[in-house]
TrEMBL record:
Protein name: Class I SAM-dependent methyltransferase
Gene Ontology biological process terms from the UniProt entry: methylation
EC number(s) on file: 2.1.1.-
InterPro entries with a match to the protein in the record: SAM-dependent_MTases_sf (IPR029063)
Coiled-coil stretches: none
GO molecular function, one term: methyltransferase activity
Gene source species: Halomonas salifodinae
EC primary class: transferase
Length: 232
């Protein structure tokens, strides 16, 4: 995916992000797109597209957006949506595997689905389940559905989650992926002001290599990262 070299003045050098990449930490992300509200930059190393920190919402405004969500384990449609991650991940788990749902939101549902399948679950959410002690435990699998696009510091958070996995563990993510600059311009996903990081397949390949994990793409918008088993 080639970054845009657009700039306010034709023929001038490309604009560079004022911030280091929030995933891999390097400077030099190139201007990728601008809409009516904010700019987007593309990292030349990990391919993350991100919004600069100056355009992040304050905590109160961010939570106000999340409070409008009406997700519930009683909603069959929401369960079907989460099934895109639940089905392939559950098929890879041993009976009784223990999990953490990170960023569970105001209506935890994926954790309920795994518990119904016999997997004990913990949940964490900075707004709705702020229990930092669960982030000190170890798990056989960790899920984060529609979460990574909201993270201000995805590099730090994803490294922390990977460190909480036991050998052979799985990190299951669900987020829509950047496919091209042309598609990005008209993409509904960037209209949510709480979405500040946008991943592509190239980004997840970089992340897997960085974390020493293997990556799979079992379904649309779904990514599974597998931590090596020390005995393998």
């Amino acid at each position: 995916m080639k970054p845009s070299l657009s700039s306010p003045d034709a023929g001038s050098p490309p604009r560079i992000s004022p911030d280091p990449c929030p995933l891999c930490g390097i400077d030099g992300a190139v201007h990728f797109h601008r809409d009516a509200r904010r700019d987007y930059y593309h990292c030349p190393r990990c391919a993350l597209v991100h919004v600069p920190a100056a355009n992040h919402l304050p905590s109160e405004a961010e939570r106000a957006v999340y409070d409008q969500h009406e997700n519930s384990p009683d909603d069959p449609g929401y369960r079907r949506f989460l099934g895109r991650l639940f089905i392939p991940l559950q098929a890879r788990l041993a009976p009784g595997a223990q999990g953490l749902d990170f960023g569970a939101g105001p209506g935890p549902t994926l954790s309920v689905m795994f518990e119904e399948a016999g997997h004990p679950m913990a949940i964490y959410d900075p707004f709705y389940a702020p229990h930092p002690e669960v982030l000190e435990r170890r798990y056989d699998f960790i899920t984060a559905t529609e979460v990574v696009e909201h993270l201000f510091a995805p590099g730090h958070e994803l490294e922390r989650l990977a460190s909480r996995l036991r050998p052979g563990g799985w990190l299951g993510l669900m987020t829509k992926r950047v496919t091209s600059e042309e598609a990005f311009v008209g993409w509904h996903y960037i209209l949510d002001p709480t979405h500040v990081c946008f991943f592509s397949e190239a980004t997840f390949h970089w992340l897997a290599k960085h974390l020493g994990m293997r990556v799979e793409f079992p379904a649309a918008d779904v990514v599974l990262l597998h931590k090596p088993d020390l005995e393998a």
